[in-house]
Every structure is written in C-alpha cells, then in structure tokens.
Write a structure and sequence with these properties.
The structure is a homotetramer. Chain A has one domain (4-356): Chorismate synthase, AroC fold (4-Layer Sandwich). Helices cover 27% and strands 22% of the residues of chain A. Chain A has helices at residues 37-47, 107-114, 130-148, 174-177, 187-202, 230-239, 260-263, 333-356, and strands spanning 4-5, 10-14, 21-27, 64-66, 70-71, 74-75, 80-85, 151-159, 162-163, 209-216, 244-249, 267-270, 273-276, 284-285, 288-289, 294-300, 310-313, 319-322. In chain A, a hairpin with a 2-residue loop joins strand 5 and strand 6. Chains A and B meet through strand 1, helix 2, helix 6, strand 11 and helix 7 of A and strand 1, helix 2, helix 6, strand 11 and helix 7 of B.
Chain lengths: 360, 360, 360, 360
C-alpha cells in the first residue's frame, strides 16, 4: 500500500519533484461536506517553499485544482482528485548528482530498489510529494472540524540546540504559530531559531528540529486495536514524512524514567465524561483516544543536501567530493508544520469513520 | 485493518487475555520454508511471564500448535494458523477493577469505544495478545534468515534512570542478551537495572525503559515509498506494542541537534557495494534500506497496573481509591525484547516480499 | 488478500482438508451482537458431508469452537476466532493421486503455483476450507438479521438437466428448502434431481447444477462504487467457492436478449420508498442495492473427482489411467447451499458497515 | 476499497461524467517497463464514443496525459497518474432527469446511498469512469506482453438475439475484431448485429449483448487461493463494469448440464509442460491458471437510458412519464470490448506480481 494511506478515509498520492504534476486522490470523504479549493490552498501556501529567506528560494505557486468528487461546493462521496502542476524545473542543477549519490539522501537507495531513478531532484522522495498529503489533509481537517470540532495545531518546538519554552498546548493557535517565520509561538526562542538558520545557510549547512502537534476535541473511542492503534498510525504517518527520525507521544522517551505511580494519569470527572488530571498518556490509552488532547512530537534530521563540500564516493565507489548546486532548504522544519497537521488529520479522519461502523 | 498487519507477508492475531486461546494466522509465507513448532517455541518462551522473580508470577506454559499451512515440516504456501491455549484464569483478581477504570490503562477507552469490554484483565489490550505476534514473527525470522541471512537482536538499553553503555550493535548476540534476566548485555548495568526493578516491585510500583533493536544483513532496497517507508512501518509496528510511547531510528531525537555536515553519512566502498562511514541514518535512506544495520529504539512507559493505592474516579465519576490486586509485572521491558524482534521481522519480511515484485 | 475477504467486516480463513483443523478469524463484527456456537452450528451442519446417501459418506461432526472475541454470549468487537478440528483422515485413499494430477482438479495448478502441495486430498482447494466461510457467514447473518431484518435463502435450482419450476422468491424459506435432501423446494423437481444423483453415483460419475439465492430486506444504498459494486463483490464471493463456473444477477445472461424498453424496471411507489414493478435488475442498480430483493444464480460444475477410469497423464507426462479411490461427492450442489448463503452474508455485512461511514 | 482495484498492481480511478476530468493512478507497475501515451491512446480510442453511427454521437477526444511515474519513456516504479480532461458538457440534456430517477439506472440508488448526486449525467456511474480503467489496463497489457507474452482479445459474441458462430479463440486477433464496427469477427453475424442496433436506435430503444474474452499465454500458477481465485477476481472485475449482469468462465452455465466424466479436461503432454485436451475449465483449475487459454464471457444488459417514453414515478413517488433527452448509446457492447480487455489485464498483472513473491 505504498502510496495509499488509510482504510476508509484514504489518500493515494502521486508525483515526482520534476514531472508534470503532483497530487492526490481522496476516497471515503463523507458526502455533503463543503469543499472548495479555498479550503485547501491555505495549507498548501504554508507548505510552499520560498515563503521567506529562511527557506528555499524557488517560487512555486502550487495552485490546487479539484478534478472530481465535488460539485457545487459539496463532496459527492466519490473520489476527490487533487492536482498541482509542477514548474520551475532546472535539471541542470542536479547534473553532478547523477553519478554521485548524495550522502544520507535517497539517491542510492532508490537506485538499488528500482534499478532506475528520476534524472533530477529527489524524484518521489522529494518534499514535493507532500503536496498531495497536505491537499488531502486539508479536506480531512474540514470534515473533522465540521463534524467533531477537532482542531490541529503544530509548531516548531526545537531547531538544532534551541528549544521552545512555555507553550500552552490547550490554547496555542495557528495564527500564533505563524507570527514567526520559523513557526515557533515562543517569540524569543523564535528569534534565536531564525538566527541559527541564517547562520547555517551562510555556512552552506543545514539544521534539524522538532515539531510538536496537538489535536484538540478528539472524542474518546478513536483508534483501532491492535495494529492500528492511534499512536501506531500517527507514528507511521509522521515517520513517512521525509527527513523524520523519531516520534513520541505524551511522556515519550522521558516518560521511561518515571515510576508508574508518578506516570499514571488519575481519572477525574470532567463534565459528563471522565478526564485525566495529567496527560502523560498524550490523549491515548490502549491505542484509543481518551478525550484528552492528543500530543506528540516528531524529530526531523538536518536536510541531507548541503552546499558544503562532502567527501564521499560515486556510484562506482570512486572517492570524490560533492558540492550540491541549486537552492536547498537549510531547515525544513517550519515548512513541515502543515505536513504534520495534515498527516494527523488523515489518521484521525480514518479512525473517526472506522468508529462509525460500530455505532449501532 | 486493525488486527491484520502487512501487505504480502501478513499476520492476523486473535485472542483476549482470558478467553479460550490466542493466536495468529500468517499469510504469504513462501512455500517450502522449513517450519515447525520448534522454530516458534523459543521466542514464546522468552516472551512468557514468570521467567524470573522480576516478572509476573503466572505460570503460562504457552505451547504453540500449528493448525494448518505446514506439512512434513515445510510451509505449503497456505495460511499458517497458530494457536496457544489460555490457562490460569483468576477473574476474581479483577473484580474491583470492573467499576473503576485503571488510570493510564485501556479499561476506560475500551468501554468508550466498544460499549462493552472483557470482564477481566485487559481483554484485547492485554500483553497476552502479543503471543500471536511473537509466534508469527518467529516464522518471519526463519524465512528471512534462510533466504537473506537477516538476523534480529534486541536488548534492554534502559530501565528507568539506568542506561546501558558500550554495546556493540554489530556483534551483540541473543545469547549475550539472555545472560541477564533483564536482557541487558552490559553486565554491570544489568545488575543495577535488576536492583531497580526489585525495589519497584517491593514498593508495588512499576518502571519503564528503552529497548534497542538491530537488524543485520538487510539487503539494500527494502521499504516502500511513500507511506510504507521502512521507518514508517517499523514505527507503526513498534508503537502497536502495548505500553510504547516513542520510536526513533538512527540518530533519532538527538540527531536533530546536529548540523547536516556532521549528520550526513558519507558513502564508502564496502566490497562490491556502497556502505556508509557512519550510520546516523540507522540503515535507512528515503524510507529504503541502504544495506547498513537498521537500528532503532522503542520507549516503554511504566506499566499502568500497580499495587499502590491510587486516587482516581470510578466509571460514574465518583472519587475512589484503587489498589490493583493480582500479580502484575513491575517492568515489562525484558519480556518485550522478543516482541520487538518479532515485529521487526514481520515488517522486513513483508518488505522483502514486496520488493520481489519488482525484480524482472 | 488471498485468504481474507472484506474491508470492514472481514474474514480470514485457514486450514487444509487433512491438517489439524480449519477455521476463520472474523474482524469488524459490531460489539454487543449476541453470538454463540449455537448460532453457527446449524449452518455448519447443513454444509457437512454425510447428511444423506446422496453425499459423501465421511462422518465429520464439525463442531465449532469460539476461541475469542465473545464473552457472556456477546461479541466484544474484537476478532472472533472460530475453530473446527479435522478428523477421519485416510491418506491412503489418495496415494495414487500423488503422481497423477486429477483432471479438472487443483492438483496440477497447486503444484505449479507453490512447488509443493498437501500430500493428500485437495489441501487448501478442498471443500473443507469452506467451513471457515460458513462459520463466519453465520455470524454475519446474525448481525444482519438483528440490525436490518435481512434474510438469505438459497436453494438448488438445477441439477444437471433438471431445472426447478415455480419457486416464489419472495416467500421461499429455509425449512421449505430443507424438506428435500437435494434442497430444491419444488417437490417433484427435487425427486427427479435425487434420482439423477443416485444414477450418477452408481455410474461413479458426478453432476453439476445451479443454486439461486435471494437476499430479502436489504436496505437501499448498499454497495461501493466502482470496483466493489454489490454485484461485483457477490460475483467474487460466489466464484471463490470451489467448483463454480458462472454467476448472474437479476435477468443475467437471458436479459441480454431483451430490449431496454422491456428490460427496464419501472419505479413505483412502495410505502414510503420507491420500489420497482419488475426486478430484472436483481435488486441492484449502478452497483448499489435499491431495496428490492437481491437475486442471483451460481453455476457449479460436476465434481472433478470421479470413480470412473479416466485417460490422462501423470506429472511427468506419461499416459496413464486414473480411478479415484475413496468416497467422493457425486453432486456438491445441495451442500453448497449454506456456503452460498454465507458468502452473500459476508458481502452484505461488509457493505452495511461501509455504508455506516457516510451517515453523518 | 471502492475505487481501488488490485493488491500489488493496483489502480485507483477518479472522475465523474461531467466534472473537470477523469483518470487513474497506477501503483505497482515494475520499474523499467517502456510506457508512453502512445501505448495507452489506442485502447482509449477504441473505448471512445462517437466511433460510428452505431454509438453515441458525442465527440470526446479523450487524450491521455501521463502526469507522473514515467521519465524518458520508462516507468520509474512510482505511481503513474493518468489524466483525461472532460469536455462537451451539456447539462441541459439532463434537466428532466433531476426529479425523475431513470428506471434501471443509478439515479435512485446514488441518491439513497450518498444523499446527494451529480446534477447531470450518471456521475460516477457513467461509462466515462471506465476511461481510467482502460488507461491503466493498457499499461498492464504492456507489462504482461513484454514480460510474459500474454495477449488479450475480446469480441462481441452476441447482440440481443444474434450470436456469433465459429470464432477460433486460439487465433482471433484484435484487428479481426475491429474489422466490423460491432466488433464481432464473424462477418455475417456482425452485419446482422449492426442491423439490429440501427433498428433499435430508430425505435429509441436499446440492446444488450455478450462479450467473450480470451487471455493467451498466461503461465500456469497465477491466481490466489482462496478468495482471490483467478475466476473470482475476473468475475469481480467484469461485474464492476457498468451494465454487466453475468459472468461465466470455461463451460460456464452450460457446463452444469454435463456429467463429470464428460466435463473433465484430460491432461496431455504439451511440450515441456502439461496441457489439457479440452478446455471446459477455461484455463483455470482450483482458482489457478493451468497454462491453457483463459476464456470467459460477460453479459451486458441493454442500456437503461432510452428515448422512448417510460411510465415511472418521480423521486416523490408521483406517477409520470420519462423520455430521455440527449444522445444515448443504443448498444454499449462494442465499446465495452477494450474495457473487458483492460480489466482482464489488471487482474492478471496483479496476479503475476503476487506470484513473484513465492519464487525463491
């Protein structure tokens, strides 16, 4: 199921970095939901490169077209095909990389897997593939907000050595996140992150970081034991985003250091349902949402393509030096914020629909 | 696909903690592979509770029976059904927990999801469900070893505050891992972990920990872009194991703090293929194995069921105190070692078979 | 998805003719449905060989055991594992067939596919595999009757040259069907069919036939465009039953000879919904149920294993003569009646659950 | 999996009759296969309406564009997205049909299923949806011919009362089929079919028919027991084509009247493999291809949309008369020939790839 994600609410993405276009086909969206290009474009714009000096300079307008599945602004319940044209191809930029696989990039592994690969850019491993995910995720978000009031907010929680402090997961908003170009809602930390990225860019180097995402108003009962537990599908979804190296939910790795008596989240009465006093569980127990905010973090490595000279070997094993030409993102984490939100929305919309099948 | 995992090599598990039995159906195992109960039982024995004072005292012999799919010691290519009987049911132990959902356990969420739940124990959320995974994983391991020489070794890398040091991922063996009852191949660290678990047990408390797993001799080219990337499926697999809260591969979360120029793994010539000088990638680039060892870590929270009194509320929201009766594992991490290995084997066998479909 | 059928209500069957057992794992059954072995056994008994002199003489009691997923008579929403032990193995009966592939049987193709095959009987191609389907189908039937009042009645409509006449699809019942051992509710035709089967048995020959099935009270709106249309999934389901060679719905092949003006089913008002005056559509339009009875027919070839001497070649291509030993069914059609009903119930339960995901 | 077909070689179609476009995403095509629009267009042209006076007059050029997955004329192994723009929308033609569901059409059932439907034409139930299948099928055919030499030839075997005679399944070619506009390679029968269609057109009526398809050079061993048997998947594939009412393979329904001793296909030595003297099996035994030609037939009902006045009721149940405006096909069977071939190619390519996973 390589390019398809989901069981009932399902998305199939297509497209390479430098072919005619990229996009997605969304199946399972309930009929009647209000959908138009205007619901999708804002998240694509947030994902788009060239939003600031911090990111790659390519200007790709990335306008989405709905090809099918929607009429008069309403989903028909049939597959929604979404298409975005590719532009701005400069294959020349990638010429030297044809014979030299970029260290820590997908050049070598694609060649080994397929025996052939796209002649320029990252082909299917390019961040451009995520356009289809974000377009599909915007539809999932619309559905979840309309039917359940669910909202997704992700932000940059760390860039390299700088971690954000004091962000209230219960109240942080997307507009607060977008106030800084690094998408960190803690202003002083954002300034420091911005500075670090500029420094790396000047050094033709790159930086990694961490994104935190909160999903609010998710009803209790979503998540499919045993292999499609909420955290399992979120983990798959996040680790399928290019450049990710880690995922944790709730207390995560640091929770392994607590005793059970401290880690357990005591139940409390919260209106007409049960809530928990703490949220080390990250909103999930036994793979199923418990009604508390779902909170997780995703680790992004520094981008592999850098302008600095690197000692490596070519495909034949001959020692050589590689300096990547072209324009490359020194830090993808700010642009990855809408991708994380979109993948979370795809997971939860699928689980919401699956849960409907039990409600007799 | 809640109880089914995999696309070509697929396992469907069944069974609750206290019904008649648990097990799995394995589809897609190539015909002709030598399989018998003897290939499966050792990993089930490593998973079994009651192996030492450190773990729960229940004696479950957990003998596996192959019901179908194998004849004269060879896989027929048809579904292999694996069954393990349940024993030792003491529903009385769980009586008080019927009206009080255990904090950070699945009692509340199962009730919210299904509107009904098993009357005792964790039902489908029980660690007993993992028997089917381990039995199926043993078959996957057999196949991968016979056909590719792939081997899986996992070990306990941390228990609570104690982390293991100096373990060579290229040479560590299962027998070295099993030398200590905590399954940490670093002897001095193992002793300290053991002590910590005993202390927690006496305090009717519980401890979490971290497991590291290495998959050696995985050929380059395995992993399915884009949603079934190697790390994405491993993440799903690991986060579907009960009590897991985090997953990281290669440099993981700490890699986010490195610059790209330091993080990138330069290629080198390694015999007739390319290798990498470092392995921050954890054996995976662009979602596809690169021929280096695949290395990942999994975070386990402290078990939720503890004997200490906990302030919480019952299902109706009334304040109460819960003291879990019965015998409960103070630290599941040592027993989870074969589960991690098994899930890794299930992921990689599925990917190996999928890769065959491209080899014309 | 070879041994798994369905998307939401899914069944995975396992087991060969002569291993330790056969069975199925049912996923997706809504929680709370009342289920016990007593709901399942009657259909297994109808499927069982040895019900009369007309069928094979093997006495297999075929008692089903529910291993998981049910507690106190209610489905938990977790996988329901169903197991039936094998007995009465007489491998000796099949000795001569080891080197000679039976004409029109699966011996040759299994060997070509898998490079190995079960040493006796039909292995996975045996009718015994259908036990898992019937057990699972009984659960699907229970669910559909409880929630929708849907009922399934199939009967033998033809044996060899004899076709049944005058059966009212709107009122025919299972007890009427079971009044004759050939399961044809038209008594005079049944007598003639019975006679034909006896004659064939004496001649060590075999007969084919046709089963008709009606599904009543299926609500309008079930069926998933475009590849999982109601008739498409029914066709797959029926053509997956051993020995089937054809499927038709509504007017079927004979409808190709009518003009559209005659074939179209005019709509009429039927209470608070629309109905149709005729039912050439067979209850399905555009792949979706229209609320009228779903009616289809399935063609079964004469069984391949016969006692008569057949000129054929062995696996090495040497000319030889084959006379099947053992006891073989001269006509499987009466026993296939519950299998057809079960597969129909599996299709429609899956579609009913999928339709739930649109109902916001 | 409503709009997705296949397990390894998989196609997802999208598009309504009158939206911006239709198309498909093809996953699993092995890398390196030579693919260009020129390989796809011929089958789309054969499917296109307006090829002669016998079919609907709409001129749709239906030019396919490959959006992704192919570079320099070679498949990359990544998803191949195929797009065809819609044109020639005349929604006015369908105005009267908005309040009156066409008898035996999908108007009523789509409304009941989705609570909403496309405002004109058949929406997703339109024959236009099959463009994606034909485009995808052309790729499957290319792959199967290159790697296995498999070829698919379908033809019109009956139109209404006229059946074709004397067509040699072993030698009939597509060019012979295309010699007549009704696509029947028996010339005298073709003339009579043509005449019948013209008569029906003048009477504003419609005709059904039967297509036969042969798949030659399919190697033994393809087909996935038990639910994805070759004939089961072919049946699903064919019955998912709009307007189909029946499917039979080999001896089909008429084979039910033969005794086993006559029906069985004796094995013979055929070069270095076994063949069969007769082919009542239709090339499939136990759900697996046996190396003989796979032969099946598909029944198409007369199109539901006719110009004649029909007595029926509107959506509110009020008695009314409907005369369909616009241009409608009096007989879709000739145009359905490439659709049948395409669906067969999709089934067999998927099975060929699945079989690769066993070949160690």
């Amino acid at each position: 199921m390589s390019s398809t994600f989901g069981t009932v609410f399902r998305v199939t993405t297509f497209g390479e970095s430098h072919g005619k276009g990229v996009g997605a086909v969304v199946e399972g969206c309930p009929p009647g939901i209000a959908i138009s290009e205007k619901d999708i474009q804002p998240q694509l714009d947030r994902r788009r490169p060239g939003q600031s000096l911090l990111t790659t300079d390519r200007d790709e307008s990335d306008r989405v077209t709905i090809l099918s599945g929607v009429e008069n602004g309403r989903a028909l319940g049939t597959p929604i095909a979404l298409s975005v044209a590719n532009r701005d191809q400069k294959p020349g930029d990638y010429a030297s990389m044809q014979s030299i696989p970029r260290p820590s990039h997908a050049d070598y592994t694609y060649q080994m897997k397929y025996g052939i690969r796209a002649s320029s850019g990252g082909g299917r491993s390019s961040a451009r593939e995520t356009i289809g995910r974000v377009a599909a995720g915007a539809i999932a978000e619309k559905f979840l907000y309309e039917q359940y009031g669910i909202e997704f907010v992700a932000w940059v929680n760390a860039v390299s050595m700088t971690s954000a402090s004091e962000i209230d997961e219960n109240s942080v908003t997307r507009s607060a996140v977008d106030e800084s170009i690094v998408r960190c809602p803690s202003k002083s930390d954002a300034a420091q992150m911005e500075k670090a990225i500029k420094t790396a860019k000047e050094a033709k180097d790159s930086l990694g970081g961490i994104i935190t995402c909160v999903c609010r108003n998710v009803p209790a009962g979503l998540g499919e034991p045993v292999f499609d537990k909420m955290e399992a599908r979120l983990a798959q979804a996040m680790m399928s985003i290019p450049a990710t190296k880690g995922f944790e939910i709730g207390s995560g790795f640091s929770g392994t250091r607590l005793n059970g008596s401290k880690h357990n989240d005591p139940f409390i009465k919260r209106g007409d349902r049960l809530g928990t006093l703490t949220n080390n569980s990250g909103g999930v127990q036994g793979g199923i949402s418990n009604g508390e905010p779902i909170i997780f973090r995703v680790a992004f490595k520094p981008p592999a393509t850098i302008g600095q000279a690197q000692n490596t070997v070519d495909f034949d094993g001959n020692q050589t030096t590689l300096e990547a030409k072209g324009r490359h993102d020194p830090c993808v984490v700010p642009r990855a914020v809408p991708i994380v939100e979109s993948m979370a929305a795809l997971v939860i919309s699928d689980m919401a629909l699956q849960q409907k099948t039990r409600q007799y």
